[in-house]
Amino acid sequence: MIEFCFLLVLFSPLLYYAVAIVVYFKKKESRAFMQMVVFPLPFVFLIGFLLYNGYENPEHFRELSYVLMAVSIFTGLGIITHQLIDRERELLSLLTRMPASFLLLATPITMLVPGLFLKVAPFSYVVIGALMGIFGYIRYYQGKKRGLLYAYSAILFFVAAPLVSLVISYIYFDMIKENVIYRRAYWGDVTCHDIGYPVIFFQEEFIKPFLFSSGYLGLMAIVSSVRKYLLREKMKKDGTIPKEFFEVIEEKFHEEQN
Amino acid sequence: MKNKTDLSMIVLEYTYRCNSSCIFCYNCWKNDYDVVPELSVDEWKPIIHKLPPVKRITISGGEPLMRDDLPDLIDLLKERTKYVSVLTNGTLLDDRWARMFKEKEVFVQVPLHGLERNHDLLVGMTGGFRKAVKGIAYLNRNMVDFAVSVVGNKKNIGEIRKIFELAVALGASELLAIRFIPGGEGLRNLDLMMDAKEYETFLSEFDRVLNRYRLFGALGIPNIPCKFPEKGYKALYFSGCTAGVDWLALDPAGRVRVCNHSPTIIGDLREQTFGKVWNHPLLRAFRKHKVVPEECRGCDKVDTCLGGCRAAAQTLHGDWKAHDPLFDLR
Predict the structure, then answer these.
(1) What average pLDDT score do residues A138-149 get?
(2) What one-character-per-residue DSSP string does A90-154 give?
(3) Which residue from B minimizes the CA distance to A232?
C-alpha cells in the first residue's frame, strides 16, 4: 500500500509535466506551460522531504505518503472537475489558483491524523511561502495587480512571522526546553533543534490560521467557477446570451471530435 | 534605445473609420478636429522606432479591425513592447482574427454596453450585440484573453448588473467599467450622464459582480474619492489617471495627445523627436500635478486623483483645470 502511495505521489508531478508539454506543443500556450511547470515544484520538494525522512524514519514516510496521496487525488479531481465545467480556459485560470486549492485540500487531511499537522507544518511553511510568492508573481505577471499583494504576503510570511514568533518564544522561555526535546525527537540529530520552540509556536499560531485562510481562497476560487458555469447556463436558457455564441463554441467542439 | 522616461503605455488610434455609431463615442474627430490621412504601417515604422520601450501599447480607433494591415502593425509594435492589446467593437471578429490574436499573444478588449436591445441602441447598429457576442465566442474558441468594457450611462444603468454578469458568463478575464464622460459624439448627448445615485449604483454593482465571480476589474475613468468615497468596496480596484505622466495617445496620423479623450494635439512624431514631445509644457505640468482644479491644491490625494478626468473638464469647459462633471454631482 505504501509503495503504491509513494508511486502515485512520485508520478503525479511527472504526469503534470507531461500534460504541460502536450499543451505547449499542441496549443502553443507558453504561459500555461510556465504555470504548469511552476505548480508541481512544491510536490517535488515534498517528495524530496518524504524520501529523506522516509530513509531516516519509516514512520514519517508512511504518514506523509498518506497526505501526499490525498493531495494528489484531490488535485486530480479538481482538474477534472474544472475541465468538465469550463473546458480549457477555466482550467488554465484554475492552475494559477491551484496553490490555494492545494492548501484547502491538504489541510483537513493533515488535521485528520493526530499529530500529523504538527509534523508536516515546519516544512510546509516554507512551501506555503514559496507558493504564495510564485502564485503572486504569476498573477502579477498576468496583469492582476492584486498578485503583488500575494507576493508581498509571502515576503512577510518568510521574514516577519518567524521574527514575531521568536520574540514571543523568549517571553515563554521556560517552555523552550521541552519543545527542543520534542523537536529533536522528530528531526533526529539532523537539523533545527536549536530553534525548537519558535518553530512550533509559529506553526501553531501562524500556520494554522494561514492554512485556513488560504483554504478559504481556494474554496472561493472553486465556488466562483461553479457560479460562472451556472450563470452561463441561466443566460443560455433565458436567451440573454444569443445562440450564435454557443454555435461557434460547439463548432469548435465538433471540429475537435472529428 | 534605453527608456529615459516614465512612459509605460501608449494608446495608438490606428484608424478614424468605424462601423459603429456609438452615441457616447469620445473620439475627438467627431467634432472639430484637423483630420489628416491615416498612416500606413511603413509610415508608422520611423515613429514607433522613436518611442522608448514601453510596457503596453493599446491599439484603438475607430475600429482597428477595419484595417487589414493590423497584423503588420502588431508585429511592428512588438519591437517596442511585450504587451499589445486591441480595442475592438467585436463585430468584425471572426476565427481568422481570433487566431491571429492568439498567435501574436494580443489581449483584446470588447465593449458590451447593454443587453441586446440597449446595446444596439447605444452603438447605433442593429445586430451589433449579436455580432459582438459571436466575436467573443471566437475569442473563447481560440483561448484569447479578453476584457469586456462597459460605458455606464443613464440608458443602461437599470440593467448594469446584468451587463457585468453577461460579460462574466461570456468568459471575460477582466472587466472594465467606464463612466460616460463628455467628448466627441458624447458632447451632443450629455443627457447620458449619470447622476450621483446612479454613479454609486454603477460602482456598487460592478464591485458586487467582481467579488462574486472573483474577477479583476478596474475603472476606466478615475473616481473622485472626496466626493465618492472608495471605502467599503471589496473587489473594485480604484486607480488614478496617469495620462500625460506615464502614457500618451497617438492619433491615426502620428500626432500626439495627452489622452485619447482630449482633442488637444501637443506634438507630431512624424516631424519631432520623442524627447521634444515629451518635454511639452503641458506634459510637464501634468507630471507635476499642476493641472488640477483650484480646490484640489493641497489635497493629499491630488497626485492620484487629479480632481477627476482632466480631459472631460477640458472638453466640456475648455479648461484643463475646470471641474470634471462628476465633481459637480455632489
Answers:
(1) 55
(2) HHHHHHHHHHHHHHHHHHHHHHHSTTHHHHHHHHHHHHHHHHHHHHHHHHHHTT-THHHHHHHHH
(3) B169
Candidates A93, A230, A240, A243: best to mutate against B (most CBs of B within 10 A) is A240
| pLDDT tens digits along B187-235 | 999 999 999 999 999 999 999 998 888 787 889 999 999 999 988 887 7
Q: What is the pLDDT of residue B234?
A: 79
Residue A123 CA, distance from chain mean position: 13
Across residues A30-34, what is the average pLDDT? 50
8 Å CB contact of B212 and A227: yes
A245 and B168 within 8 Å at the Cβ level: the answer is no
A–B interface: beta-carbon pairs under 8 A: 73
Pairwise CA distance, residues B330 & B317, whole Å: 18
Distance CA B111, CA B25 (A): 12
Q: In this structure, are residues B206 and B237 in contact, taking their beta carbons and an 8 Å threshold?
A: no
> Distance between CA B258 and CA B244 in Å, rounded?
5
Q: What is the mean pLDDT of chain B?
A: 92
Mean pLDDT, residues A155-159 taken together: 49
**A252/B141 touch (CB, cutoff 8 Å), yes or no:** yes
Residue type, A72: S
Q: Chain A: nearest CA to B187, how far in angstroms?
A: 31
Q: CB distance from A143 to chain B under 8 Å?
A: yes
Length of chain A: 258
> Within an 8 Å CB–CB cutoff, is residue A221 touching chain B?
yes
Q: In the prediction, which pLDDT does A199 show?
A: 47
Which residues of chain B from 150 to 179 reach within 8 Å of chain A, CB to CB? Answer: 162, 165-166, 168-171, 173-174
Q: Which helix (H) or strand (E) holds B85?
A: strand B81-87
Asked if residue B184 lies in contact with residue B26, where contact means CB atoms within 8 angstroms, the answer is yes
Residue B6's pLDDT band, with cuts at 50, 70 and 90, is: confident
The Cα B226–Cα B219 span in angstroms is: 16
- In this prediction, residue B303 has a pLDDT band, given cuts at 50, 70 and 90, of confident
Let me know: does B168 contact B208? Beta carbons within 8 Å: no
Looking at residue A74, its pLDDT comes to: 47
ipTM: 0.88
Which residue in the set A27, A143, A246 is minimally distant from B143, CB to CB?
A: A27
Q: What phi and psi, each to the nearest 5 degrees, are found at residue B137?
A: -60, -40
CA distance A121 to A207: 7
CA B309/CA B289 separation, integer angstroms: 13
Distance between CA atoms of B140 and A227, rounded to whole angstroms?
A: 18
CB neighbourhood size of A206 (10 A): 18
The identity of residue A165, as a single letter, is: S
Contact list, B170 vs chain A (CB under 8 Å): 232, 241, 245
User: Rounded distance, CA B166 to CA B160, Å?
Assistant: 10
Tell me the pLDDT tens digit for each residue of A96-110.
444 444 444 444 444
